[in-house]
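Entry: Cytochrome P450
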Amino acid sequence: MSLTVEEAGRALADPSAYADDARLHAALALLRREAPVHWVEPDGYHPFWAITRHADVLEIERNHQIFLNAPRPQLLPSAVEDEIERQAEQGLGLRTLIHMDDPDHRVIRAVGADWFRPRAMRDLEPRIKELARRYVDRMAILGDTCDFVRQVSVHYPLYVILSLLGLPESDFERLLKLTQELFGGDDKDMRRGETPEEKFEVLMEFLGYFQELTAARRANPTDDLASAIANAKVDGKPLNDFDAASYYVIIATAGHDTTSATISGGLHALIEHPGQLARLHDDPALMPLAVEEMIRWVTPVKEFMRTANQDYKLGQVTIREGESVLLSYPSANRDEEVFDDPFRFDVGRDPNRHLAFGSGTHYCLGAALARIEIRVFFEELLPRLESIELAGTPENTATTFVGGLKRLPIRYSLRG
């Protein structure tokens, strides 16, 4: 595949590129090698600097006082960005942790931080194990074939999140559909519509659901994360409805979609690398390292954006005040300068300095939960797994933000 640097840069703003691993990684490798800080002016998007080397992504993440999340935390078509700006002027729209900078970010993050600390995770682990067992049992009930994504991996992490939030399982299908529409807005199989207005409808429906939840938990507090968010106070005042609803949205969406993508992508990697599957099966003590390698390999969050609030020299390039940068995590996580043989899937890789959870002040709030969910699922699956292979062609989601496999047809044999 022959690409120019300009074509490689534009691939970062092309959702279809993320559905084609070979195309994407060819573009990213070219940029790392020849133009690691590259100005991109893609059709339909506001321009940005593409940041593709691990060291540069890390440098920007650590300079959070210069490179701000606001006003452009993720890559969106210019028409959608303009619509969001119009809605924000009317006091509407999303304001999650990924949209915030300090001091707001620090204060709002603290609202839910205790629920993701080690002790809270230990308390939740029995429920996670119960759900992992349920979905491995489901694989057995389904027989010897299934679409692992649609029938297993999208369900298990969402039920974990519902448990954490204290939401009823009857709300599963609604939340799953909204999450897929929100993150799958560029994919023809998942999106609700193609216009900015239709995409905004999904967001407003999400916010409406969680505004009702906020009111219910304030009227009748319970012992769950949903109640903690609803009744949190900042400077002696409750969170406003949009900030509370936005908090729920980031927990309920990023908290399960990224984990689902990693579990399905991790299983795909094990199928494609049977030697690594056998190695992990024979040595379960490798599981923590294997989990990190699955996270690196899949990198479900494809990018975040930052905007410079002053001129900053990065390598040989000066990023001007007001210009945006795109932090390419799939590229950073395959950087030849950091990872030995980065295109080798290695369940014993150590060290593994991946940036899939970000770094610094914006490090993923739910990283510990994600690690437990992935570990527990494979600890439940592998001892029962006698054989596994592909039963069709896997398909990736078209996206520029969050995603992974949308189909993983498998054939398998399970004990018990």
